[in-house]
């Protein structure tokens, strides 16, 4: 026998009301449903130009490979991505003032973060970028020299 009586259970399920954003998205989906259903079986929609300037086949391969990669990422991918993104945010925070700082600091800190996690790829990119920078500086030197000699 129980010493205490249990209270009667009167539970009732209450659904949370939808926010304005949820209602707006719901209305938009409802209005766009006929168009999306029409476009799914239409050949014209499959030939829409790719935002990267690739052909439709290469574009769909590119995005499908990216989608598959994000569905089954390698171990530790998302933490690395978080650290690299956080480095960019810290760069934006530190870059108060000029617009050049707002470009250089986040890109530099993200580049340092990427090079910590992917050193072989960073070396390859640095070699290509170094060669390209050398070519640009040589072209600039030649242009300045030709202007100097003309005057």
TrEMBL record:
Keywords noted in UniProt: Lipoprotein, Membrane, Mitochondrion, Mitochondrion inner membrane, Transmembrane, Transmembrane helix
Subcellular location: Mitochondrion inner membrane; Mitochondrion membrane
GO biological process: cristae formation
Pfam family, one: ApoO
Record's GO cellular component terms: MICOS complex
Transmembrane segments: 77-95
Signal peptide: none
Subunit structure: Component of the mitochondrial contact site and cristae organizing system (MICOS) complex.
Protein name per UniProt: MICOS complex subunit
Native organism: Acanthisitta chloris
């Amino acid at each position: 026998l129980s010493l205490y009586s249990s209270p009667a259970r009167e539970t009732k399920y209450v659904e949370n009301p939808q926010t304005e954003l949820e209602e707006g998205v719901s209305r938009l989906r409802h209005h766009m449903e006929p168009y999306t259903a029409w476009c799914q079986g239409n050949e014209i929609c499959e030939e829409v130009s790719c935002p990267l300037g690739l052909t439709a086949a290469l574009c769909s391969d590119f995005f499908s490979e990216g989608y598959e990669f994000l569905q089954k990422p390698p171990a530790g991918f998302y933490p690395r991505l978080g650290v690299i993104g956080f480095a960019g945010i810290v760069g934006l925070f530190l870059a108060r003032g000029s617009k050049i700082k707002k470009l250089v600091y986040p890109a530099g800190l993200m580049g340092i973060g990427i090079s910590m996690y992917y050193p072989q790829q960073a070396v390859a990119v640095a070699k290509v970028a170094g060669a390209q920078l050398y070519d640009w500086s040589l072209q600039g030197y030649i242009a300045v020299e030709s202007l100097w000699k003309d005057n």
